[in-house]
TrEMBL record:
Gene from which the chain derives: mvaD
Name listed for the protein in its UniProt record: diphosphomevalonate decarboxylase
InterPro entries the record matches: GHMP_kinase_C_sf, Mev_decarb, Mev_diP_decarb, MVD-like_N, Mvd1_C, Ribosomal_Su5_D2-typ_SF, Ribsml_uS5_D2-typ_fold_subgr
Domain Mvd1 C-terminal, residue spans: 177-308
PANTHER family xref list: DIPHOSPHOMEVALONATE DECARBOXYLASE
Origin organism lineage: Bacteria, Bacillati, Bacillota, Bacilli, Lactobacillales
Family in the record: Belongs to the diphosphomevalonate decarboxylase family.
Enzyme nomenclature, EC number: 4.1.1.33
Length: 329
């Protein structure tokens, strides 16, 4: 069969997905909103081949087996089931999400895999269908199908739990400065982290309510190009997500002393009139939502608190692209 290559960019949630209403289908408890990033992406080529006796999976030229390989095989099984085929596949994936950025690559990885595998298997590559499929690999991957600001509608079943674009062309100044605290894999993966918070934080149902109540105002802030309102809501929602982890039993925590130093520095910058806001995911790195014109001031302030700081700047990025053939770069 024919090889197809897909390219998908990673995304950062401004309103978080942190818990599943259905863990089999990956239906979230909250509607989430994200920004797709230009600088970090995954390219994946897939070819189903009748002569293979198992799936062959390579990430950055290394053959992947074990649990990570199994996740890909499970995903390919879904595609095979939908396409009504039994052929195994060769999957080659190149990650342009530098480990040093400490960003999760599962969003771009499963979005690209959904795109390339669907095209190669001859099933629908309609963007809503791809979002629905990508969601089954990793919840956040549902959002990486689209560019710009994206909303993953929580929905209540497989059909309705899909992402859609809110604003694809972003012609107003917004960027994310990713401050690298650690490039080590996270100790508690997002799957068990969110499950613990959901099960044991007494505040969790209220967090879900507060998050879902923020969907409309955050959409409005995006429509109004209101960085201040968007940033305030994103920071609050992220801190409240991490509070759920600290309220779990036993409590756990992704944020380190360094993360808090950065968060405090960002809050101090705000008191001085700079629009900068923090958001954090299932790891210690802090992403600072800001206006590109303030980069120098922000970096200077960060350097005074943590002198050896490492960072990467990311701007809004596009949705998935799929091409026939092997186009891995
Ligand atoms: O898609 P997953 O299973 O890696 O979970 C992502 C969870 C967060 O990154 C913390 C939040 C989000 O909405 O992306």
């Amino acid at each position: 069969m024919t090889t197809y290559t897909a390219k998908a960019h990673t995304n950062i949630a401004l309103l978080k997905y942190w818990g599943k209403a259905d863990s089999q289908l990956i239906i979230p408890t909250t509607t989430s909103i994200s920004l797709t990033l230009d600088e970090f992406y995954t390219e994946t080529a897939v070819n189903f081949d009748a002569s293979l006796t198992s799936d062959d999976i390579y990430i950055n030229d290394d053959q992947i087996t074990g649990a990570a390989g199994q996740k890909v095989v499970t995903f390919l099984n879904l595609v095979r089931q939908q396409a009504n085929i039994t052929d195994f596949a060769v999957v080659r994936s190149n990650n342009h999400v530098p480990t040093a950025a400490g960003l999760a690559s599962s969003a771009s990885a499963f979005a690209a895999l959904a795109g390339a595998a669907s095209a190669a298997a001859g099933i629908s590559t309609d963007l809503t269908d791809l979002s629905r499929l990508a969601r089954r690999g990793s919840g956040s991957a549902s959002r990486s199908i689209f560019g710009g600001f994206v909303q993953w509608q929580r929905g209540n079943d497989d059909q309705s739990s899909v992402a859609e674009p809110i604003q694809q062309i972003i012609d107003w100044p917004i960027q994310l400065i990713t401050v690298v605290i650690s490039d080590q894999p996270k100790k508690i993966n997002s799957r068990s982290g969110m499950q613990n918070a959901m099960q044991f934080s007494p505040d969790y149902p209220a967090w879900v309510k507060r998050t879902n109540a923020m969907v409309q105002p955050m959409q409005q802030a995006i429509q109004n190009h209101d960085l201040e309102m968007l940033g305030h809501m994103a920071e609050r929602n992220a801190l409240e997500m991490h509070a759920q982890n600290m309220m779990a039993n036993p409590a756990f925590n992704y944020l380190t002393d360094r993360s808090w130093t950065i968060i405090n520095t960002v809050q101090k910058l705000r008191r001085e009139g700079i629009l900068a806001f923090s958001t954090m995911d299932a790891g210690p790195n802090v992403k600072i939502i800001s206006d590109p014109k303030d980069t120098e001031t922000i970096i200077h302030a960060l350097r005074s608190s943590v002198p050896d700081i490492q960072y990467q700047i990311a701007t809004p990025g596009p949705g998935i692209t799929i091409q026939q053939g092997n186009h891995l770069s």
